[in-house]
């Protein structure tokens, strides 16, 4: 699937126009069922909503890769990033396979210098990721506004602060290898990522090679990947042990299991860094 960079629309109000917002873990996000309804009424060029509904499936390999819903490991990784006090300030971050984009939004809140979002499906970026980033940035601007001790007339208005936050963000859709090529060959300046965050992206072993090479090509020499996953994906075949074995055989990254979660389906957080890095 070809890669594409998505422009941030000028009319930000329009992005949130027909959306309903929900909150969890202090983050807000658009209600998926409402987005799905508008998509079924024609706002989905890829047709992934109707395909997902008619096949009763959250994953249609090569067509729809699950970004319309928020998968539970996203919340595991948000918890871990907070518990481990991972610092984002001044860093460049990639939310790989972002779906709703909550991991990238957490990095933005942590004062990251740049945050890039990637999803396989362009509908997900346009209808879910972008609105979520804008909705959370608006909240953040309001929060800063309330914390600000300056008199109201001297404070930057939300309309002024929002575009500022958004200049830190870029949005991409497409298959991992294609997005990597787009980033590396683009005329725009590109610096490799200090941190790559990725949740529920190792369910399909057919994608391991593309995923591994993307991480290897886009991560900074001293960068770090935080990958959240179920231990096993029943019915799809992927899982953490298979992925770790794959990574070990490639001999590029060292891995370390930094957290396991035993509630419900077993899940975990894997940290990856280049072999020989500090
Ligand atoms: C199961 S969803 C998880 C979404 C989100 N990270 C979460 O935890 O809610 C998997 C994500 O990985 C991305 N993805 C999976 N396979 C991909 C591939 N081969 N190329 C590009 N993106 C892919 C899709 O964009 C999809 O959003």
TrEMBL record:
One Pfam family named in its UniProt record: Methyltransf_23
UniProt keyword Flavoprotein, yes or no: no
Gene Ontology process terms (BP): methylation
Keyword RNA-binding attached: no
Broadest EC class assigned to this enzyme: transferase
Molecular functions per Gene Ontology: protein-L-histidine N-tele-methyltransferase activity
Entry EC number(s): 2.1.1.85
GO terms for cellular component: cytoplasm; nucleus
Residues forming coiled coils: none
Key words of the record: Cytoplasm, Methyltransferase, Nucleus, S-adenosyl-L-methionine, Transferase
Transmembrane segments: none
Subcellular location: Cytoplasm; Nucleus
InterPro entries (alphabetical): Methyltransf_16, SAM-dependent_MTases_sf
Protein family (similarity comment): Belongs to the methyltransferase superfamily. METTL18 family.
Protein name: protein-histidine N-methyltransferase
Organism annotation: Indicator maculatus (spotted honeyguide)
Lineage: Eukaryota, Metazoa, Chordata, Craniata, Vertebrata
């Amino acid at each position: 699937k070809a890669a594409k960079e998505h422009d941030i629309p000028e009319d930000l109000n329009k992005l949130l126009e027909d959306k309903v917002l929900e909150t969890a873990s202090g983050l807000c996000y658009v209600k998926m069922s409402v987005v799905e309804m508008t998509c079924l009424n024609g706002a989905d060029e890829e047709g992934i909503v109707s395909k997902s509904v008619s096949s009763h499936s959250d994953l249609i390999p090569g067509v729809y890769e699950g970004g319309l819903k928020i998968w539970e490991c996203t919340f595991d990784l948000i918890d871990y990033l907070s518990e481990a006090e991972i610092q984002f300030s001044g860093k460049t971050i990639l939310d790989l396979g972002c779906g709703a984009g909550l991991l990238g939004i957490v990095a933005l809140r942590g004062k990251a210098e740049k945050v890039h979002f990637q999803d396989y499906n362009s509908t997900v970026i346009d209808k879910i990721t972008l609105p979520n980033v804008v909705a959370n940035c608006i909240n953040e601007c309001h929060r800063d506004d309330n914390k600000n001790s300056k008199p109201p007339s001297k404070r930057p208005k939300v309309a002024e602060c929002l575009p500022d936050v958004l200049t830190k963000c870029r949005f991409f859709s497409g298959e991992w290898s294609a997005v990597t090529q787009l980033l590396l060959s683009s005329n725009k300046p590109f610096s490799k990522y200090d941190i790559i965050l990725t949740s529920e992206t190792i369910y399909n072993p057919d994608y391991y090679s593309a995923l591994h090479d993307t991480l290897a090509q886009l991560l900074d020499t001293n960068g770090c990947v935080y990958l959240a996953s179920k231990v096993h994906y029943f019915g799809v075949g992927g899982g953490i042990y298979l992925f770790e074995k794959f990574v070990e055989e490639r001999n590029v990254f060292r891995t370390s299991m930094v957290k396991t979660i035993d509630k419900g389906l077993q899940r975990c957080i894997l940290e990856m860094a280049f072999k020989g890095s500090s």
